[in-house]
Structure formats: structure tokens, C-alpha cells
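Give me C-alpha cells for this 388-residue protein.
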Amino acid sequence: MRFIGLKMAVAIAIIAMSPVWAANVQTPAKQVYITDFETGKLLYEKDGETQMKPASMAKIMTVFIAFQRIADGSLRLDDEMTVSQKAWKKGGSRSFLEVGTKVTVKDLLHGIIIQSGNDAAIVLAEGLSGTEDAFADEMNRVAGSIGMSNTKFTNATGWPHPELTTTAKDLNILTTELLRRFPSDKFPELYPIFAKKEFTYNKIRQMNRNPLMYKSKGADGLKTGHTEESGYGLVGSAIRDDQRVVMVLNGMSSIRQRASESRRILDLMFREYKKYTFFEAGTAVDQANVWLGKAPRVDLVLDKPLTMVLSRDERRKINISVKWQDPVPAPIRAGDKIGTLTMTSGDMIQELDLRAGQSVNALGVFERFSAAFKYLVFGAPSVSQLAQ
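Here you go.
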């Protein structure tokens, strides 16, 4: 047998750190953490693991817990909760709930997500856990379970507190988990609330504070936040051409700066990064010669589509090579590992199995003798070459 090594002038790699071009991206945001949703690839970060205050972006965890209760059947959207004196008196952004009244979970979620109502968040927390303090304990348990290792919640609203802390990376982890657990196609009554532009309660109409909802293509969430200590922040997500980006920005100086910068950075991510599909699952990457089989060749295929999110610079540097021992002796079963596809980019190396695309039975005794004789006399047929 002879060794075959084939090369293509494309490349694929998973880069664990921000690309070189990101060093030239300037932003007034103090903390940034942006990822591709499907792959988890880090697209850009700036002090993403630096401690910061979440402000009302903490309400994403309040909503996350409510979504989980709805998903497991222990809470319904038409369940009602009573507005306490504590919730009614709370300052800051409000849904204008009236003390002693009963409000549905559906209205509370709309009040939290669209109006950023502190009163609505406290009512939901008390209704789920008895007290806001007990709910904060639940927030921290959930945070630990999903990998938010640098976060401590102290209340359901993000109201300033000395011990309240998080990072842009942790808020990205939370948002990504929310998107994964509660997809719109499975829970159409939950995540799509984030994309609503307004909500009216108690005859008071309020607009969604998320600036991405108005001028950013594909944006469908999530939440803004602001305190004097934290500055202006935003957790956002958008999907364009079957690619979703999850973005956390914090520490900006004004509402106007938050709006313009969040739109600019989101557009930059979609412009710089694209989703590339190099091979579909089951599509022949190449063909190998078969030794003493009833078919002369067998397709070499991958288990799943070879799809990567890459910057333009990464795409230019991509390199793929495939290798196997040729010819492959029969019998061959569909799915047998035949060779490997190696992806390289700089120091990054990743290997994927190449498998038989179909089964090939062995020849009979006399057929094997005849084929072996021809092989010794005339050699093997040429292997198809991939374009350089």
C-alpha cells in the first residue's frame, strides 16, 4: 500500500483568543465580551473578566429563573402574584404596579423585560421564593450551575449593593444559556418578549429601552442597564444569515453613546465574521481506491457538516489536508474510519475522522485472484486530486 496526502488551499481552525485585527478595534465601552452563539467562539473582548456592576442587566437572571419554572411546568403565564408594599415603593424604573393588586406572570415578565420594572422584578422574586433575599440565593445557585464563576447577585433588580458583582463574560454565559434552553421555536411565548418594542400596563405605555430593537437588523434582545457606578450597559443579540452573535457592553457614558456604540460594534462583528460551510455531512471530501472490493473506490465523508465562523483574516490563512492509506482493503462498512482531515491555522491543529461513505463487499476468491494479478501488472487506478 502507498500513503496518500492531499492538500487544499482552504483552512479551518478554532481560535481561542481574539484575532489580531481586534487589537485595532477602539470602543469607549469599558468591558466587552462578544461571542458567536452556535460555536461559542470568542469574537472580541475587552476586560471581559474584570469585575463590574450589572445594574438592570441582572434582571436577565430573574427572567431566566422564571422561564425555567415555566418550562418545567411549575409556573404558568396566567398565574397571579400579589404586589407587596416593598415592590410598590421601589424606586428607579417601574411598571407602575399598584400595591395589593394581583398581576399575571405574563404581565410581570413584560414589565421586567420591556419596561425594566424594578417593582415587577420584586413581585416575581417574592412570588417564586417568598422573599427577594431568598430569590437572590436562588439566582446565585443557578449562576454557579451554569458557570458564572465571577458573579454574586444580591437582589432581583440589579439595584446598587456593595456585594453585587459580575463580569461581561458571565453575562454572556447567562445570555447564551437562556437562548439555548428557551429557543423561540419551542417556547414562542417566552424569549420573543425581548423583541417587543412597547408594553402598556395600568394605562401607561412604555417603550423598550434596548436601542438595538429599532435600527439593528436581526436584533431580538436583550436588556439594558444603568447606574452611576456601572455606567450604561447593554446585553444584546441578533441573528443574520443563520448566524447569531451575543454581545455584552458596559461602562459607557450616556444613553446616546450606548445606542450608537452597540449598533456599531454589532455591525462590525457581522461584517468581520462569516459562517463558512466547507463540506456538508455525507458529502465526499475525496475518494480512496479499494483493494479487492466489488467497487473500485469508496467515498471519504465527514460525520457532520464542516462549518466554521471565521474572520476574513482567518479565512485567508486556512489550510486543510486529508490523508489515508491507499488502497483500502475490502470489505469496508459504511462509517468505518478510513483516514483523517487535518485543519491548521498558525499553531492551531485539529483533526477530524474521514469515514467510508458506503459499504464495499470483498470480491470472491477467483475475482480476488484476477484483480490482484491486474494490480501487480498494471498498478492501481489514479486517485482523484483535489484542486490546489
